[in-house]
Specification:
Blueprint: E1 13-14, H1 15-22, H2 26-34, E2 41-42, E3 48-50, H3 52-66, H4 71-103
Antiparallel strand pairs: 1-3, 2-3
């Protein structure tokens, strides 16, 4: 499988629009980037570009912050979830390989 190219993952939204959508200030959004909680792309002119997935992540971060969760804890949770997703993807790939080998399925078919 290739990279996710759905509309949710396309980085096309400016920080001003993200601020309006999330209710966060532009400074808060930049702070979450500094804390490595969000990863916008940069345009040729250096402007930040966000995706709808980034907007959802920022809303989740804001909700957790309101509950008193520190940014460090949020980051550690994000790392843990990312590692679990990678592990699951690898397990699924290995399982498909084992099934294909068991039943003699060629990858090209």
């Amino acid at each position: 499988m290739g990279e996710d190219t759905s509309y949710k993952s396309r980085k096309v939204i400016t920080i001003g629009v993200v601020s309006e959508l999330t209710g966060l200030s532009e400074r808060q959004i930049r702070y979450y980037e500094e804390r490595k909680l969000i990863f916008p792309e940069r345009s040729e002119r250096g402007n930040r570009k966000y995706s709808f997935s980034d907007v959802e992540t920022l809303i989740e971060i804001a909700n957790k912050r309101e509950e008193g969760v520190r940014t460090y804890e949020i980051r550690q949770d994000m790392i843990k979830k990312n590692n679990l997703a990678k592990d699951e993807k690898l397990r699924n790939k290995m399982l498909r390989g084992q099934i294909n080998a068991r039943f003699g399925i060629q990858k090209n078919q």
